């Protein structure tokens, strides 16, 4: 096997891997009815990652820049720390942004097209539960249009109560809460707190806002990482005269 065929095989393997990743992403995002623009964005990201991998594989190996002395070691450490923090922020934006987006996206499709009408939920009893991991659930039973219904109170309360007594104080029996009733749904999903924006549209807006803000954050963090990386290169001695001067100063 000739040496020229090795890079070609690596490029082919990278290309096949990128196509496989794109196929999996398209199937997953189509099943969960992601917007087409997000599928396109993921495709572009996979293509850019594959192109970068091909470019890195094609670069000849060079000794690390650590062979050159640092002209600004303190600044180098600060910039390195900044890059590390930006990288953590990058992954955090991807993780939390995706979770917020997919939750609202699924809720939008759950309520999309469902019939509903405006009504009032009259509280008869509230329930406060604390899970094993510290998660708090607050909900209530009550009457809607003469029928017994159940309702989650977290959207109505805005803040999490600390005890059953506080919950009873904030939502006493007889409290009337304006709601949307979805008669064809089940459980607590039937009752949603009334807002000017209808439930399905509200979830759709929240999903799009999460997507837009995540993309804006990724762009900003990406620019910061690029600027910090370029600035860090300036911390190395670049000319032979500078290297000799630094070596002489260290020797003295």
Provide the descriptors you would attach to this structure in a database record.
252 residues; alpha+beta; OB fold (Dihydrolipoamide Acetyltransferase, E2P); 3 domains; 5 strands; elongated
Q: Could you describe the 3D structure shown?
A:
By secondary structure, the protein is an alpha+beta fold. The protein has 3 domains: 1-60; 74-112 and 198-252; 117-197, OB fold (Dihydrolipoamide Acetyltransferase, E2P) (Beta Barrel), CATH 2.40.50. The chain contains 7 helices and 5 strands. Strands 3-2-1-4-5 form a 5-stranded antiparallel beta sheet. Strand 1 (117-130) and strand 2 form a beta hairpin. Helix 1 runs antiparallel to helix 2 (36-58). The longest helix has 39 residues, at 73-111. The chain is elongated, with a radius of gyration of 28 Å. It starts with a helix and ends with a helix. The relative contact order is 0.13. Mean pLDDT is 82; it is low at 1-6.
SSE topology:
Blueprint: H1 5-31, H2 36-58, H3 73-111, E1 117-130, E2 136-144, E3 147-152, H4 154-157, H5 164-170, E4 176-181, E5 191-193, H6 199-233, H7 240-251
Antiparallel strand pairs: 1-2, 1-4, 2-3, 4-5
Helix pairs in contact: 1-2, 3-6
């Amino acid at each position: 096997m000739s040496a020229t065929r090795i890079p070609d095989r690596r490029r082919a393997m990278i290309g096949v891997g990128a196509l496989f990743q794109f196929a999996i992403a398209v199937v997953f995002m189509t099943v969960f009815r992601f917007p087409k623009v997000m599928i396109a964005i993921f495709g572009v990201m996979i293509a850019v990652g594959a192109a970068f991998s091909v470019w890195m594989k094609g670069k000849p190996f060079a000794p690390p820049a650590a062979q050159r002395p640092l002209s600004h070691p303190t600044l180098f450490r600060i910039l390195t720390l900044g890059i590390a923090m930006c990288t953590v922020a990058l992954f955090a934006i991807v993780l939390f942004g995706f979770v917020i987006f997919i939750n609202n996206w699924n809720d939008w499709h759950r309520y999309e097209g469902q019939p509903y009408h405006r009504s009032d939920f009259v509280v008869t009893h509230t329930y406060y539960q604390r899970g094993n991991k510290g998660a708090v659930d607050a909900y209530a039973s009550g009457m809607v249009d003469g029928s017994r219904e159940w309702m989650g109170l977290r959207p109505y309360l805005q803040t999490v109560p600390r005890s059953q007594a506080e919950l009873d104080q904030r939502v006493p029996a007889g409290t009337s809460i304006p709601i949307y009733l979805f008669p064809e749904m089940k459980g607590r999903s039937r009752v949603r707190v009334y807002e000017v924006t209808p439930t399905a549209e509200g979830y759709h807006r929240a999903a799009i806002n999460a997507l837009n803000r995540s993309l804006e954050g990724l762009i900003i963090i990406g620019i910061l990482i690029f600027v910090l990386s370029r600035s860090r290169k300036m911390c190395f001695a670049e000319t032979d005269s500078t290297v000799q001067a630094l070596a002489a100063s260290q020797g003295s």
